[in-house]
Amino acid sequence: MQDYSTCSVYECARPRHTRDLCRLHYRRPTIGHVPDSPEVRFWRFVDRGECWLWTGPLNPNGYAQFSVEGRRVYAHRFAYELLIGPIPDGLQLDHLCRVRHCVNPKHLEPVTCQENLLRGDTLLARNVAKTECPQGHPYDDANTYIGSKGERKCRSCARIREDIRRPPPGQRPPRIPKPSCANGHLFNETNTYVTPEGWRSCRECHRLTELARRRSRRLYLIAMDEMTS
């Protein structure tokens, strides 16, 4: 039985480095050596059983990886295209056996991205499986509406938040008038006047605004005289 942890060159026992070759033969190809085809290298890493378990490298998520002409591809996609045919555009392969490093094409089914997420242990699948909101209100037709981002929302929770934000007229607390304006001037009898719309206004702020407007106007006229003279 061939040792797949060593170099694929005949009578070379050095450890494998890259593309089935040791470090020496990878940097200096041997005369007469013809690298194996991707199909031959693929079957070296397949342990056949009920599931065809991949004995080669895995990515951090546990899916089988395979190198084809210098490109890293998923081994289960390579197996499906090799033994069944092309994967339809816009579809993904779902592992029916729920074993991520299985490359048996009989355990693979082309599905949409949403269907693939709903079948797995994902955040989307867990949220769809919920029958109640975090406060215990049921997600039924009468108590559920769809938000702007496509998510389910609870009508009871929305109603409670609205009551807290804007209580009914009879339950609203009395409005306490502010003792001063935004600039800190007191709203007393001499410094306060009422606008035609019924709002309180600060006389000191109005006076300072008028002085600034006049000063700006005067500087503008001086600058225009200097330009024309």
Describe this structure in words.
The chain has 229 residues and is α+β, with helices and mostly antiparallel strands. It has 7 helices and 10 strands. β7 and β8 form a beta hairpin. The termini are far apart. 9% of the residues are buried. The chain folds into 2 domains: 147 residues, no CATH class; 37 residues, no CATH class.
**Percent helix range:** 25-40%
Domain module tally: 2
Instruction: Give the low-confidence spans.
Output: none
Mean pLDDT: 86
Order of helices and strands: HHEEEEHEEHHEEHEEH
Q: The biggest beta sheet, please?
A: 2 strands, antiparallel
Query: What's the gyration radius in Å?
Result: 37 Å
E-strand count: 10
**Percent of residues in beta strands?**
5-15%
Characterize the overall form: elongated
Strand and helix layout:
Blueprint: H1 23-27, H2 38-44, E1 46-47, E2 53-54, E3 65-68, E4 71-74, H3 75-83, E5 92-95, E6 108-111, H4 113-119, H5 123-128, E7 144-146, E8 152-154, H6 155-165, E9 192-194, E10 200-202, H7 203-228
Compact description:
The protein is of the alpha+beta class.
